[in-house]
Specification:
The complex is a heterodimer. Chain A is of the alpha+beta class. Among the domains of chain A are: 28-275, no CATH class; 696-754, no CATH class. Chain A contains 19 helices and 24 strands. Chain A has a seven-stranded antiparallel β-sheet, with helices on both faces. The mean pLDDT of chain A is 95. Chain B is mainly beta. Chain B has one domain (2-93, 100-109). Chain B contains two helices and ten strands; from the N terminus they run E-E-E-E-E-H-E-E-E-H-E-E. Chain B has a four-stranded antiparallel β-sheet with strand order 1-2-3-4, with no helix packed on it. A three-stranded antiparallel β-sheet of chain B has the order 5-6-7. In chain B, a hairpin with a 4-residue loop joins strand 1 (2-4) and strand 2 (9-12). Mean pLDDT of chain B is 94; it is low at 128-133. The chains are: A alpha+beta, B mainly beta. At the A-B interface, strand 8, helix 14, strand 18, helix 16 and helix 17 of A face strand 5, helix 1, strand 6, strand 7 and strand 8 of B. Strand 21 of chain A pairs antiparallel with strand 5 (39-43) of chain B. Bound molecules: zinc ion (2 copies). Residues 89, 151-152, 154-155, 177 of chain A line the site of one zinc ion. One zinc ion binds at residues 89, 151-152, 154-155, 177 of chain A. Chain B: It comes from Nostocoides japonicum T1-X7. Chain B: This is Putative acetone carboxylase gamma subunit. Chain B: Pfam families: Acetone_carb_G.
Chain lengths: 759, 133
């Protein structure tokens, strides 16, 4: 039998104070950072909830809070200086006093709903009782370090306590994707980050406004730490005034409905959402649903990264298992802190599975997440996370891929049966000195032009929206060009055959070609993957998206060509690369992880937005829809015939229905002829380990406890397989060093040959 | 009672089999991986996602690298319908994607009266869903 020693509150406080004072460093707190759920009722809430409440009245309070958040969202979208603010990459939030996030704004990035509580809990735990900090009316905290919460380090938040008659009654926050944050590369998402210190500003939550007064000393420090000091100040004010407005709305609301009704409304929102989430999970058939998907690069080099996902439903509980994922890399930027990785999952839930539920933290109370610490979705605090979106977008992609499989049989649906949305970061980051002499560093809104997944009843929408923000915008290119010294020479033009084929095809992505003009110094970067292995799969027999390369046309000034021989220019990525119209230019293609690169005037960089996954068997696609895509320039005649087996006159586009039916019947027969029964097939197909030519990371097959990795040591690369905890630290060599070594070896061989020939 | 589980497969609770929704062929026991009853083809991904820019000149061409990526095509032995595709590195075991607790599924539908509905989206319901092809 164990004896339980009672500690008096005073003793406990003394112990806590001692420990707090003796702590050398308040790093990210695992107790906070590993807990994605809302806290249980406090005794005070218990007492309030026991009373009679009118559900309609509470709902009115809830709607008033959300309308205050929407007002703040609009304020920031209208007045924010960061491109992200203008395009909807922001949110506003209201929390309980304990730091449970209850509501976010209707527009903006939904995934914030699952990550904004962490910094508030940190403030509550460490600063509220600390005499050197404290929390008072009129204070505001700033934060961006993803290891303490939020999605990634480009997002900066302003967090305000709300006091009512001297009681801390709630917290409010505003967050904007600011872009520039002093990282190794301009724009705040450095793909070449090699240590956490390359990730730029790492603001743990600290007080920037004290009792209504902005701390200019701290602001100056922050401004010195980033490339855009004006932006840092301007958007700090924007976020602060918007948060201030929410605070005014909350206080006004409490004046009107009373403290108790306000508190009960918050608590009820949390509990109702959890109850409804559990009811919905119960309707999903019990079982385990699995997907294995793969990333093809670290942003520096092509390696294969596994992202497995198994979702198990038992009654009203859901377990999401990411064990077997690729290990963390200590000098690559794609790792995502566990909280950030979970926000990818939450985006899938809020955007696709239950898009109608109020967005708060308790939606995840019924969900357990399993990871291997030390994996790229649960790395240590030392790992760089500058381009964590790589892993966050994958955790989104793998859960979204499973939702239609889990819910196909459910009579009640809240979203659609839909193939994977495109989920890579196909856009340009940029930096340098603009035409007005200002230093800029940020990202093109084309990130928001992702193709939608095909649905079970219609095609996906081309260039629709980013999967993380349904109401985001692409901006007006002409207006953007007033601030930036580059032009989009090809802009928003759907790329032919960039299509995920299916009975219903995925929404397609467009071409983007940029070239700098009229600037003393300018450069671009790309931070995506999916140029060797497609970024998204299809669903129920549909195909995934194609791979997408980065193309460069260097050593020429396209603006001179446009001036002197405009007939040479083609508004077409494919033709420019295949026909090579500029005589002296150098043409090349690359993977999509281009570290910041200086661009001379008129040098072209081209990429494409990606397409969402296709749905169903291509042979079931309506032939009329196939030729409509040909007519629109979305599909080549060759692919209409090769993939869809439609027989038509390529001049008139008239479909020969009979011949098409026959061609499709032949293809179904051909499938049966060339395919083999499963058991026979896998006996030949399955190998004990990954292909020798692929640097592979993660589990192989269903055994998720054995992790494969290629480790670089003094003697070069060695492949091994071990439990995650036993893998040595992974550091990859600089790809340029490998290139130098390869070239040097070639040079020595050539020299030896030359000397040999001379003898 | 047949419960639609994917675009092309349902589970017949009476026979406890995965069945093709297009041709009614029995595919595999419902408690097993439906893929075990399919025909499989190892598709070179460049045949589907063809290179759009000159593959002789450029390393990256819009076509996946066939030494990194294959498409497994799982089709119905009865009618040749493509039931599912899976993008995998060469040699990676196919994924057991749907492992359904058949007893729980039976319990879930035990009280259901009338035809089994098929809902494809929030406002999208198909009433006569079987044999639509
Ligand atoms: Zn962001
Ligand atoms: Zn069939």
């Amino acid at each position: 039998m164990t004896t339980v020693y009672e500690t008096s509150a005073a003793d406990q406080a003394r112990v806590d104070r001692f420990l707090a004072e003796a702590t050398m460093f308040l790093g990210p707190d695992p107790e906070i950072m590993r807990d994605h759920k809302s806290a249980p009722r406090t005794p005070a809430e218990e007492e309030l909830m026991a009373r009679e409440w009118d559900a309609n009245e509470l709902d009115r309070v809830r709607k008033r809070i959300v309308s205050g958040l929407d007002e703040a969202y609009e304020m920031m979208a209208q007045t924010g200086a960061a491109p992200g603010a203008k395009w909807g990459d922001l949110t506003s939030a209201v929390y309980s006093a304990g730091g449970d996030l209850v509501h976010i704004s209707t527009g903006g990035v939904l995934a914030f709903a699952s990550v904004l509580h962490y910094p508030v809990r940190f403030i509550n735990k460490y600063w509220i009782g600390d005499p050197s900090v404290g929390v008072h009316d009129g204070d505001a905290f700033i934060h961006n370090d993803a290891r303490y919460g939020n999605i990634h380090n480009t997002d900066q938040s302003i967090i305000l306590p709300v006091f009512y008659e001297d009681e801390l009654i709630a917290w409010v926050a505003t967050v904007v994707h600011e872009g520039e944050n002093g990282a190794k590369e301009p724009g705040g998402m450095p793909s070449s980050s090699e240590s956490a210190f390359d990730d730029g500003l790492r603001m743990s939550p600290f007080k920037i406004i004290e009792k209504g007064e902005l701390r200019r000393d701290l602001l100056t420090f922050l401004q010195n730490s980033v490339r855009e000091p004006a932006l840092q100040y301007q958007d700090l004010k924007v976020k602060y005034y918007a948060a201030q407005r929410i605070k005014e709305r909350v206080v006004g609301l409490i004046d009107e409905v009373g403290r108790d009704a306000f508190l009960v409304s918050l608590r009820r929102s949390l509990e109702d959402v959890e109850a409804e989430a559990r009811r919905r999970i119960s309707a999903i058939p019990d079982g385990t649903y699995r997907v294995n998907y793969f990333g093809d690069g670290t942003l520096r080099e092509n390696v294969m990264l596994k992202y497995p996902c198994a979702i198990t439903i038992r009654g009203d509980d859901m377990t999401i298992d990411w064990r077997g994922s690729a290990p963390q890399f200590l000098n690559r930027a794609f790792n995502a802190n566990l909280g950030s990785a979970k926000c990818g999952m939450n985006q899938g839930i809020l955007g696709f599975l239950w898009p109608d539920l109020p967005r708060g933290i308790s939606i995840m109370n019924s969900i357990e997440v399993l990871t291997h610490p030390g994996s790229c979705v649960d790395p240590s605090d030392e790992a760089p996370v500058g381009q964590s979106l790589q892993s966050i977008f994958k955790t989104f992609g793998i859960v979204q891929a499973l939702f239609p499989k889990m819910t196909f049989s459910c009579p009640e649906k809240f979203g659609s049966i839909i193939a994977p949305w495109f989920n890579q970061i196909n856009t340009f980051l940029f930096g340098g000195v603009n035409q007005h002499g200002q230093f800029l560093g940020n990202v093109c809104a084309d990130l928001n032009g992702m193709g939608g997944g095909a649905r079970a009843y219609r095609d996906g929408e081309p260039a629709m929206a980013p999967f993380f923000a349904a109401m985001a915008d692409l901006g007006e290119q002409e207006i953007i060009e007033e601030d930036v010294p580059f032009l989009q020479l090809i802009s928003k033009r759907i790329k032919r055959d960039n299509q995920a084929f299916g009975k219903y095809r995925g929404g397609m992505g467009y071409e983007i070609a940029v070239a700098a003009k009229g600037t003393p110094m300018w450069g671009f970067a790309t931070v995506s993957s999916g140029s060797k292995f497609p970024a998204v799969p299809g669903l129920f027999g549909g195909y995934g998206c194609p791979t997408i390369p980065l193309a460069k046309i260097k050593g020429t000034n396209v603006f001179e060509t446009l001036r002197e021989r405009p007939e040479l220019f083609e508004f077409d990525y494919e033709r420019l690369m295949n026909e090579r119209p500029f005589p002296d230019a150098h043409y090349s293609t690359h993977h999509l992880g281009m570290g910041f690169e200086l661009a001379a005037e008129g040098e072209m960089y081209m990429i494409c937005q990606g397409s969402g996954g296709g749905y169903g068997d291509v042979l079931e696609r309506d032939p009329a829809a196939v030729v409509a895509d040909v007519e629109a320039g979305y599909l080549s005649v060759g692919q209409a015939e090769n993939v869809y087996r439609v027989v038509f006159d390529s001049e008139t586009l008239a479909v020969d229905e009979e011949a098409t039916a026959a061609a499709r019947a032949d293809e179904r027969e051909a499938r049966r002829r060339r395919s083999r029964p499963y058991a026979e097939f896998v006996a030949d197909w399955v190998t004990d380990e990954p292909p020798a030519n692929v640097p592979y990371y993660g589990s192989w097959g269903p055994d998720n406890e054995r992790i494969w990795a290629t480790v670089w040591g003094a003697k070069g690369p060695v492949r091994l397989a071990a439990p995650m905890a036993e893998l040595p630290p992974l550091l990859l060599p600089d790809p340029r060093e490998i290139e130098v070594l390869t070239l040097r070896a070639e040079l020595e061989a050539a020299r030896a040959q030359l000397q040999g020939g001379g003898e | 009672m047949r419960i639609p589980m994917t675009e092309y497969l349902d589970i017949d609770l009476d026979t406890e089999m995965w069945r093709c929704r297009r041709c009614d062929a029995d595919i595999a026991p419902a408690r097993d991986d439906y893929k075990t009853g399919t025909l499989v083809y190892d598709r070179d991904p460049t045949e589907i996602h063809r290179p759009l820019i000159d593959a002789d000149r450029y390393e990256f061409t819009f076509a996946p690298d066939p030494s990194w990526c294959r498409i497994l095509e799982f089709s119905c032995p009865g009618c040749g319908t493509m039931l599912e595709t899976e993008y995998l590195p060469p040699g990676h075991p196919p994924t057991h994607d749907l492992e359904i607790d058949v007893d729980a599924l039976r319990a879930q539908w035990s009280g259901w009266q009338g035809p089994v509905p098929l809902t494809l989206g929030r406002d999208v319901q198909v009433t006569d869903h079987l044999h639509t092809h």
